[in-house]
């Protein structure tokens, strides 16, 4: 994953060449079953690896006399594929594509900036995310606002897809999303360009298949967790959100549903409001985590009653990375994915403990916090106003007390 700060000369404009864009098969994979490939006339089943673009920036104090705008887009050479234009002065946004028939740029979607999420005031930070899920699926997210609408869905009742008030016959289910019909598909992009005018300036770019969040959030695990949830694909009801009250996740929102960036599975686990769990069981996988896993397939029992197996393969439904992480930053330990991350299935099979990532001093502070929470809870019960207080990872309830990481030489057993 690329993740770097932008120089002063790039603070209002940067052109980022997309890695491996010249390799036709790098960001996609042919997953057509062999039995389908052998039948003449059958099409191929292609899978596209997700790509995430993160831009971080700030609104300055000084005025330049220009409108304050933020633009970002995917391009194939000089030709536009899909871009968004955010205008702070007018409080609007527009998403643009390139018409395949006449080669003209045209507005695909437009809307208003949500003032409760973006004020554009001097000193405020901003973030802009492009989630590229598929060759025609790309979601813009600005300060936790999805710059999308007009959901396409499949109605089982009438057995047609519905886009707005129109319906189209289709014989199978489809994923609800806005499809980006431009001259080129999103995976044909060779570069990602973003520019700003007026008081908006950029500070950082991150790109890859993993998740990113703003800098300067060390020792703020719960705030990172909230930040990612607000931009996630969560689709909570308002009653579900109410259910988070008086819990560490009391600031959760309904989420962005199909227009979100990440699944809830991949938001970080916290040991306290401050500290990240040193063993993050589910971090978004990259393309190198296998799509299939080796499994034992039962064949028969022999004459002695012994089970006979053979090795086979099955879809890897748990495609995620299990990583040892820094307890204060939440980043992979030493930023070394090779040494500190393994596929989730291997993590479970090997009962990985990430002892190298556990900080004993922080552990003692966490244990003290948990003890104080327990005492506050017990006192609340006595007073008749008990409030549930717990860490959102659920780690505390699974701790093996006789192998406490704060005692002995047994390492970490959570």
Describe, in plain words, how this protein is organized in 3D:
The chain is mostly beta strands and 414 residues long. The protein has a domain at 2-209: Jelly Rolls, CATH 2.60.120. It is 13% helix and 33% strand. It contains six helices and 22 strands. The chain has helices at residues 34-37, 221-230, 238-242, 337-340, 344-349, 360-383, and strands spanning 2-5, 13-17, 28-30, 46-48, 51-59, 69-76, 79-87, 92-98, 105-112, 125-134, 137-142, 145-146, 152-155, 160-163, 166-169, 191-197, 200-208, 279-284, 292-301, 307-315, 320-324, 341-343. The strands form six sheets. It has a six-stranded antiparallel β-sheet with strand order 1-17-5-10-11-12, with no helix packed on it. Strands 2-16-6-7-8-9 form a six-stranded antiparallel β-sheet, with no helix packed on it. Strand 11 (137-142) and strand 12 form a beta hairpin. The radius of gyration is 24 Å and the shape is globular. The model is unreliable at 161-176 and 386-414 (pLDDT under 50).
